[in-house]
């Protein structure tokens, strides 16, 4: 494990020395933003809207004390969404989608000698292939998390209204109660850290794939597993440090 | 000219290259010949810098490559073109983009028009002028090899390395690829190094042949000398091909004047 961590640090270092020209890096980063971000909007939207809806319905189901105002449901949906569900669940979903794509893509490039082809041309393959993926993830994860926050709250609103658990007015009142802007900042910091972890771990696993198609599959699975574990550990550490 | 001096390489204490010294001459097709697992690919990877030898030195036209500064190694690498066994085309790019890629990365001073002209020229040179817009998944194995050659020569390489250019190809396509590599070598006076265990290639384009066996260089010569080489391992390797055996028998019979019915 220590050896792997050392290898990971060297991998990160190799990505930053002999970087490609800014124009090349920029174009590659924009391409990766499309792959990582734009292509993930649909799945993030579906997951976050339903999580917001289910959270609202389940809180309403558990909130049986007549002394607690119903607007508390909106308040709790907002707090849970902003602090935990939007950044963490979105990042876990993206670890599955983006992480496996990064590891699988780089693994395939490795076993089909495309990475070697870059190296022979004198191009720093880590910098050319990995750095734009990490930057793309760091740009796009926070935007997707903001989208997830909004859609979760909207999902909660629709679910509450449609099931009759809470009126729209009460829900909005709850959403506006005791809002702490710092929580948004905290969620965005979490999303940036998770973006780095997912993209860097997946790239590391894919870049050092050896063997054939079976090993590419294994690398993708390991990348997703390790990314999720890293997200959960980082989630705890950030909550303990920043809250 | 590429000079290799006393190269050694081991993996987990298992020696793969045991002090190989040889020279790859300019303007010639230099063949690295040998069976599977004899260290040909490891030697090639050491020469192109994909692997670091444990011992020994490699010089490209007098400039030391191994153990030199990163900048010097980069300069040399930019003069290297390589055709990989599986072609290693970038599968997210069209054929033309694949050929343009090294130009885009290595010669930023070239204008878009100059790059386009060079891509057209290279694709025409390998006989693929109409395949520029195709994706690598849409072309045959032989065409992929041709695109690989076009990509390798696009930035005016000085050294061309080919890792088993005939693997997976039918005999006729193999012959065409061999001829193309030979023509390019003579035309641009480059140093070409080819890994092969195909005896047809040896007889066809072997200007300079190096035979490797269990990590050692056992023989050095050319295509005219190889059939009469007196190294038992090489003879066993050559005459394991029934076509070569038949050709040799006919040749011997012709010279001795005995013709079997």
Automatic annotation (TrEMBL), chain A:
Q: Does the keyword Transmembrane apply?
A: yes
Record keywords, A-Z: Membrane, Transmembrane, Transmembrane helix
Membrane-crossing residue ranges in chain numbering:
43-64, 85-106, 134-159, 180-204, 224-242
Q: Does the keyword Transmembrane apply?
A: yes
Q: Which Pfam families match?
A: MlaE
Instruction: Read off the InterPro entries from this record.
Output: Permease_MalE (IPR030802)
PANTHER family hit by this protein:
ABC TRANSPORTER PERMEASE PROTEIN-RELATED, PROTEIN TRIGALACTOSYLDIACYLGLYCEROL 1, CHLOROPLASTIC
Task: Report the protein name in the record.
Answer: ABC transporter permease
Organism name: Hymenobacter terrestris
Taxonomy of origin reads: Bacteria, Pseudomonadati, Bacteroidota, Cytophagia, Cytophagales
From TrEMBL, chain B:
Q: Which GO terms label this protein's molecular function in UniProt?
A: ATP binding
The UniProt record lists the keyword Transport? yes
Give start and end of each ABC transporter domain: 2-239
* InterPro entries (alphabetical): AAA+_ATPase, ABC_transporter-like_ATP-bd, ABC_transporter-like_CS, P-loop_NTPase
Q: Which SUPFAM superfamilies match?
A: P-loop containing nucleoside triphosphate hydrolases
Keywords, sorted A to Z:
ATP-binding, Nucleotide-binding, Transport
The protein, known as: ATP-binding cassette domain-containing protein
């Amino acid at each position: 494990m220590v050896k792997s961590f050392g290898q990971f640090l060297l991998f990160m270092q190799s990505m930053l020395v002999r970087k490609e020209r800014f124009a090349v890096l920029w174009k590659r980063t924009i391409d990766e933003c499309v792959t990582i971000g734009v292509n993930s909007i649909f799945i993030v939207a579906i997951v976050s809207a339903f999580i917001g809806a289910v959270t609202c319905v389940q809180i309403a189901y558990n909130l049986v004390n007549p002394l607690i105002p119903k607007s508390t449901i909106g308040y709790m949906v907002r707090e849970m969404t902003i602090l935990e569900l939007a950044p963490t669940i979105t990042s876990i979903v993206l670890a599955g989608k983006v992480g496996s794509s990064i590891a699988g893509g780089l693994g395939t490039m490795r076993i089909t000698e495309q990475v070697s082809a870059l190296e022979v041309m004198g191009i720093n393959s880590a910098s050319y292939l990995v750095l734009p993926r990490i930057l793309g993830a760091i740009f796009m994860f926070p935007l997707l998390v903001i989208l997830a926050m909004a859609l979760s709250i909207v999902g909660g609103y629709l679910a509450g209204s449609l099931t009759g658990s809470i009126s729209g007015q009460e829900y909005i009142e709850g959403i506006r109660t005791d809002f702490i802007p710092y929580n948004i900042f905290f969620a965005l910091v979490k999303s940036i850290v998770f973006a780095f972890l997912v993209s860097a771990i997946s790239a590391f696993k894919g870049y050092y794939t050896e063997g054939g198609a079976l090993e590419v599959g294994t690398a993708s699975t390991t990348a997703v597993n390790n990314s999720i574990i890293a997200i959960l550990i980082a989630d705890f550490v950030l909550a303990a440090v920043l809250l | 000219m590429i000079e290799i001096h006393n190269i050694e390489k081991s993996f987990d204490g298992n020696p793969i290259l045991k002090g190989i010294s040889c020279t790859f001459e300019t303007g010639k097709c230099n063949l690295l010949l040998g069976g599977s697992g004899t260290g040909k690919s490891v030697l090639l990877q050491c020469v192109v810098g994909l692997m670091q030898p444990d011992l020994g030195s490699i010089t490209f036209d007098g400039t030391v490559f191994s153990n030199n500064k990163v900048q010097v190694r980069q300069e040399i690498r930019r003069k290297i073109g390589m055709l990989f066994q599986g072609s290693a085309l970038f599968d997210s790019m069209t054929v033309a983009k694949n050929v343009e890629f090294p130009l885009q990365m290595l010669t930023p001073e070239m204008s878009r028009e100059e790059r386009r002209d060079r891509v057209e020229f290279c694709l025409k040179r390998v006989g693929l002028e109409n395949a520029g817009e195709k994706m690598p998944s849409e072309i045959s194995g032989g065409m992929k090899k041709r695109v690989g050659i076009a990509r390798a020569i696009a930035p005016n390489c000085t050294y061309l390395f080919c890792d088993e250019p005939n693997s997976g190809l039918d005999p006729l396509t193999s012959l065409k690829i061999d001829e193309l590599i030979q023509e390019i070598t003579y035309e641009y006076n480059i140093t070409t190094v080819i890994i092969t265990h195909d005896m047809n290639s040896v007889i066809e384009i072997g200007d300079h042949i190096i035979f490797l066996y269990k990590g050692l260089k056992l023989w050095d010569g050319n295509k005219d000398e190889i059939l009469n080489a007196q190294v038992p391992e090489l003879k066993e390797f050559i005459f394991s091909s029934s076509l070569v055996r038949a050709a040799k028998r006919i040749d011997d019979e012709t010279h001795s004047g005995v013709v079997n019915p």
